[in-house]
Design brief:
Elements lengths: L2 H8 L3 E12 L2 E4 L5 E8 L2 E4 L6 E3 L4 E4 L5 E4 L7 E2 L2 H10 L3 E3 L1 E14 L16 E3 L7 H14 L5 H22 L16 H12 L7 H7 L4 H12 L3 H19 L4 H7 L5 H12 L3 H10 L21
Parallel strand pairs: 1-9, 2-8
Antiparallel strand pairs: 1-10, 2-7, 3-6, 3-10, 4-5, 4-7, 6-11
């Protein structure tokens, strides 16, 4: 089992191309805070990324940058160029027609693909929330597959064909996984004590894989240690150091994530949902669910269906009216 793939699939992380930007001289695009994550790939030219409280960051051709929490930011032709809110109507029209958002004056010098990532709010185990505010992967990252995908993006943008929008959205999904691979290979300190820290510890990885493979199994520390052929003491030491919580605590949260999605998306009776995540009685399941989610499963089923599901995140069509430009 691929742990990262499993968590991304269950948490419903999906990428959607928001805007294809072609820019000339003296341009600046301000983007407000997003409900999901923002992603930009520079396929030609140079762009400057500015995030409040951080130094301007120059993005070169082939560079990709992810803002996992969707922080307010701007893209521009220079670090001191004034950035203004996006033309919402023009951005929506360009996206609907498969066109581009044209910025600046003079010949086109810079091409940027702007995308967004949304995740399922029912799932508490989220990868994007564990990342730093800005993840920047340079084009000279060592010739990884990320380079090839960015080049595919550039070619698809330069020569749109049938179903280009579908191809672009698929490539954006691939880019996220490849970006995570490259970033994790650098051994970032930010992953220590988080879910991502598991990927650097073989004992924790094996344990988590077993839990994900059979979440309904009646696991104990002893049975889990035996399953992965380590001592209980080793498991009890290594798992919390990598994940930030005990195997039992993690399993309970993951079970409640799976149950929450099933409660919202199906009409299965509570006893069936309870059994699917390892509880032999509705009472025990309800108690555990209420403790983790702060409401009983029946009420959660009702309230979660009333809440609107998130749509595709757009980095080009959500500027509020009257937004103030940033310098």
């Amino acid at each position: 089992m691929d742990l990262l793939a499993d968590v991304l699939a269950v948490s419903g992380v999906r990428g959607t191309v928001a805007s294809r930007v072609e820019a000339g001289e003296l341009w600046g695009l301000w983007l407000p805070a997003l409900p999901g994550a923002a992603f930009h790939a520079v396929t030609a030219g140079i762009a400057w990324l500015r995030v409040p409280g951080r130094a301007p960051l120059r993005l070169m051709p082939g560079d990709v940058v992810l803002l996992p929490t969707g922080s307010e930011h701007s893209l521009s032709s220079g670090p001191d160029v004034i950035s203004r809110p996006c033309d919402r109507i023009a951005a929506e029209q360009a996206r609907a027609e498969g066109g581009v958002l044209r910025l600046g004056t003079g010949p086109v010098q810079t091409h940027v693909l702007c995308a967004g990532y949304e995740h399922d709010p029912a799932i508490s185990t989220q990868v994007l929330a564990l990342l730093p505010e800005v993840v920047h992967i340079r084009a000279d990252n060592g010739g990884t597959c990320l380079d090839d995908t960015v080049r595919l993006l550039a070619r698809e943008l330069a020569h749109p064909q049938l179903a280009t929008a579908v191809v672009l959205d698929s490539l954006v999904d691939i880019l996220l996984v490849q970006l995570l691979r490259v970033w994790l290979a650098t051994g970032p300190a930010e992953v220590a004590g988080t879910w991502l820290g598991v990927l650097g510890d073989p004992v924790a990885t094996d344990a988590l894989t077993a839990l994900h493979r059979e979440p309904a199994r009646a696991w104990t520390t002893a049975s889990l240690a035996a399953e992965i052929a380590v001592s209980r003491a080793t498991l009890a030491r290594r798992f919390p150091a990598a994940v930030g919580q005990t195997p039992g605590a993690y399993l309970t949260r993951w079970r409640m994530d799976l149950a929450a999605r099933r409660l919202r998306d199906t009409d299965d009776p509570l006893d069936a949902v309870a059994r699917s995540v390892g509880y032999s009685s509705v009472y025990a399941f309800s108690h555990a669910f209420s403790r983790v989610r702060d409401e009983p499963p029946g009420r959660y089923r009702t309230t979660s269906r009333r809440a609107p599901r998130p749509g595709p995140c757009s980095a080009g069509d959500h500027s509020p009216a009257g937004a103030t430009p940033t310098a």
